[in-house]
Structure formats: C-alpha cells, structure tokens
Amino acid sequence: MMFGKRMMIISLCLCLAFLTACQQTPASTAAPPDTSAALPGSTAELETMPPSATARESSETMEDSETAAREAAAETSAAETSEAISAEMPEETTPESREESQAESSEPKRETAETTDLSHLPPISPQMGKTEMENGWYESFNEGEDTPCWIEGYTARTGGFASYFLQPGDRIAVLAPSTLSSWGAVNAVVIGLQNWGYVPVPGQYVLVPERSLRNCIDDMSWALTDPSIRAIFCVRGGYGASEVMDAIPLQMVREANKPIIGYSDISVFHAAWSVVGLPSIHGAMNRNFTNLAADCVSVMQNMMKGQRPRYHCSGFKENLPGYAEGILIGGNLSTVTAVLNTEYDCTALPEAYILFFEEIDADFEQVHRLLTVLKHHGVLDRAAGIIFGEWINAPAESETSDGASRGGYYRSMANMIRRSFFPDADIPIAFGFPAGHGNVNYPLLMGEKVRLQVGGEGVSLEWID
After folding, report:
1. What angle separates helix 51-88 from helix 2-23, to the nearest 10 degrees?
2. Which domains does the chain carry?
3. Bridge-partner residues for 395, per DSSP?
4. pLDDT tens digit string along 102-146?
5. Which of 83, 94, 213, 348 is the one with CA 20 to 30 A from 426?
6. pLDDT digits (tens, 9 = 90+) for 339-349
7. How, if at all, do strands 385-395 and 136-143 pair?
8. Please, are residues 212 and 243 in contact by the beta-carbon 8 Å criterion?
9. How far apart are CA 306 and CA 326, in angstroms?
10. pLDDT for residue 22 is more than 50
C-alpha cells in the first residue's frame, strides 16, 4: 500500500518537474512543429511506460523539442537570406520581355546624311547585375547585348561559294569538339535541326563521358571526310578545340569544303577555316533552340542557306568613325589570342582584315592583357577595322586595373579599350555590336569580305563579294 502511494507521489513530482521545465522555455524560441505522433513521449506512450522510462523519455522529448526549434529558426533565417539575395538580383530577362521592352522604348532616329560627328551619340552604359560563382555572388556587367540592331535585308552569296551552303535535307554532323556537352543540349540541337529541315547526325563520341582527345579528333575527322556530311554544327564551346585542331591537317579542312558553325572556343576552327579560305558561321549553338532572341535565330537560319544580312546598329561616343573593307576574322578574344603563331593563325592573312572580338567573365585586367598581347604581335596595327562585341558577366570591380592609376576610373569596357589602345587611331572601330555570349547573339559569317562603316548614324556591316 505504502509502495503504491510512494510511486504515485514520485509520478506526480515528475509531472510537475516536466511542466515547470516547459514553462521555463524562452519565449523567443520558435515553436517546433507538432511531432507528437512520431516522437517518443507522446501522451499515449506515457500511459504505458514505467516511471523511470517516463522520466528519461521526458528529458529526451525536451531536447528534441529544443533541437527542432533551432532547426526551424535556421530554416527561417536561410529563407530570409535567400529572399534578400533574390531581391537584390535583377529580374530575369526573356526574349519575349526584351522584345516588349524594345517595343515600348522609342526607336533611335536614323540620320539621312553621313557624318563623323559622334558628340550627339550616347556613351555605352553597362548593364549592372550579379553573377554567381562557387564562392558566392559578385557585381558584374554586360555590355553590347542591348544594342539596337536592324537587319536591312539580305544578299545571296554568288561565285564559287554559291553551292557551299545548305539546303533542306542536307546531313549535318552534330559534334562537341571542345568541352563535353549534356544530353539536353545535344537533344535540343538534334530536334532543332530536324525542325529546320535538316538531317542531324550526332558524332560517335558527342556524349561519351570518358571520351579521350583521340575520340574528339576522330569525330572531327569523320565529319570532315564523310562526303555525305554537308556541315558541322557544334553543340557547345568551353575548352579543348586547339588540341583537336593541332591534329587536323589544314589540307583536310580545305578538301572537306563544308562550313562549321559555333562560337566561343569554336573560334579556333573559325581561324583555321579563314586560313584555308573557307567561310564559317560564328553564332549560337544549342542556344538557337533554347534561349536566344528570335531575330538572331532567323538570321542563323538564313545564313546557313547562304543569305548574308546587312546589319545596322546604334552608334556610341566610344566609336571611331571611318570606312574599311576586309576579311572578317576573330571571335572569342582569349581563344583567338591562343592561335597566334600556329599553323591556323588567321591574323597572319596577307589580305586586309577586320577584327571581331567578344568575351565572357573577363575583367578589365584580363581584356587589357589579351589586347596587349595582340598589340605586341602587330595584330591591332594591321587591322583595317575592328568590331568589339559583347562583354558578358564582366566583374565590375578590379583591384589592379580599374583605371584609378590611369587618369580616372573606367566607365565601361569600351571606355577602357578606347583610352588604352585607340586614343587617336585612324581606322573605323565599333563598340557594342550585339554578338557574343549574351541572349542576343547575331551570327557573323567569318572568313568572308565585309564592308564596315562607322559614322554619326551608327554602324553598318555587310558582306560583299
């Protein structure tokens, strides 16, 4: 009898201790989710447990509750941080929203009389944003992607290359000669080319994760030597094209007599095609079928058929007026710099040439360093004209080359290039041409003769025979 009373008193004491501990929980602690159905120590379980087990489980329940509260608070803090980052990030721009924005804005007025007075033109204004890296976000800017550009018409290629380009039903090799691509990107290209009326033929190693350099060379050699293949469409860039091109004889490229399509690291192949006198297409790869401005896709389709656009773009104060004709060469700045003194160095052409450069993820120092290399090799001095395209995800801050020690901070990449390399040049130089790594990427026919005219009414670029 006494034993039963004693056990009842002990049980009441334990319950009072449990209730007192719960009341002492800090008010600021977030309430944990209701876990009574899953955690031990629920009311139903307490009724069947012995007193000693009840005390132990009560203590564990308190610890679990505190842990759940801490986890809930951590999740709330993480959500608030994510919302803060999202609020600082610029809204994602889609081709549709861009077209609506351009439609709402007033179209720049076109002057009828040619003039070289650029004082009335606006300077290039970089679009500030944020770019994600492995160690977080950094302030970045895009330049050139939003330059207004018109297609004033097309001219068909005549002469020896009239039959060089494509027709519906032609077989096109789908390759990834640089960085390994993804299944989604390859599939987008295959389906996209089919919708355009072609027959895509993926390379044997286009999606093999453990592929070797030899495999990449074999894919390119097959695409060049198979007479049924009429063109080569690259899925993506990245790195490694120079290693492949080092193993491909220029004679093989010349005898293949078929265009290659791509940009970024594919600039290596554009250089080789230019050296042997063949046209190639600098333009978006899988992005033609995923995320690209509609006008750019339309021009790409026409260019693959041999139709050459006449571009007219807005002018900027950084431009240098003038007129020039020459073979259009270039592409990605760092990639073109890497082909210097190789067998496929397009800057060694004996004919007059017009340079085109674009870049991604490069700050003022990196662009300055690459252009300095080209300057030391005489590439800039030999150019009849220069077109600078887009600078995408360029870091806005640079500890060593922001212009502070050069008479003021650089206001844009165009401002840095003009001040550092062309303060008083006498050749036409255009900045902000909308071609490169942006969502606006107008295709360019490389290795062909173009006419470049830079004046007060803007920039005109057209291909001529």
Report:
1. 10
2. 99-161+307-463 (3.50.30.60)
3. 140
4. 444 333 333 333 446 777 788 888 887 777 655 556 689 999 999
5. 348
6. 999 999 999 99
7. antiparallel
8. no
9. 19
10. no
